[in-house]
């Protein structure tokens, strides 16, 4: 009898699937709460637009905007090529059509959901806060960036996922921050994009768990690099949670005069709060997704004949 036959496995059953549904429900609730507060209320719209005006006031110089504009110009193509190459490699190297296909569908699902929500389902009411009343919630650029990186996460072996998650959500955080710097999107648009991308990542993970079975106990453990990346992501998530909470509380406590009368120092504070919301939510969502996959996901197991399968 081989050691693989003796290795304990995580038991199947509803208790092992409920966390997936609970996490997906939490993401959906967070999305609705974000929309209701930042889009449907005057206070939420005010905070969103103050952050956007802060970016325009302090980061409008060409020297500052050029790197962000260059990054966003190349981001969709880079994200698509990178994720496409990794999915193709996974398909050829592992001779497994299921996982790359599910990962690819998660990109289409997340991007399609964002476009449907933004252009068909959701509306931005005119509450006399901003001259721009066309709905931009959620951000399409940020959704695509996050979903593309998470497709790579989905086809990565369990031991590599912490590093892929750390790099992927850092990339998504920079993409979201760049849209604020350029004045393309408000902070809530970016936060909503992370929630959509994470929802489809978990949906894909749940599908893979049903197709491949539960993870083996202890798989993916014992790698120093993997453990270090997971700790860094956990630290970023903790710092991001503090920054997110502090930014939101500060934005709520500061005075909210007519949006055109806000002084530059106050706009700078709201810009910082907006960046805190973006960066904090990216790492928090990324850490939650990684923990869920680590505890309840279906890893890619090593097969000496076929490679990673």
Write the layout of secondary structure elements.
Layout lengths: L2 H4 L7 H27 L1 H17 L3 H33 L3 H24 L18 H16 L5 H21 L5 H26 L11 H30 L10 H33 L5 E2 L3 E2 L1
Antiparallel strand pairs: 1-2
Helix pairs in contact: 2-3, 2-8, 3-10, 4-5, 4-6, 4-7, 5-6, 5-8, 6-7, 6-8, 7-8, 7-9, 7-10, 8-10, 9-10
SS content category: mainly alpha
Question: Biggest sheet, in brief?
Answer: 2 strands, antiparallel
Q: What is the rounded Rg?
A: 20 Å
**Secondary-structure element order, N to C:** HHHHHHHHHHEE
Shape: elongated
Strand order of the largest sheet: 1-2
Task: Please report the number of helical segments.
Answer: 10
Instruction: Give the termini distance in whole angstroms.
Output: 22 Å
Count of distinct strands = 2
Number of domains: 1
Which percent range fits the helix content?
A: over 70%
Low-confidence stretches: 1-11, 216-222, 302-309
Average predicted local confidence, pLDDT:
80
Residue fraction in strands: under 5%
Question: Explain this structure to me?
Answer:
With 309 residues, the protein is an all-alpha fold. 75% of the residues lie in helices and 1% in strands. A two-stranded antiparallel ribbon has the order 1-2. Strand 1 and strand 2 form a beta hairpin. Helix 2 (14-40) packs antiparallel against helix 8, helix 7 (161-181) runs parallel beside helix 9 (224-253) and helix 9 packs antiparallel against helix 10. The chain starts with a helix and ends with a strand.
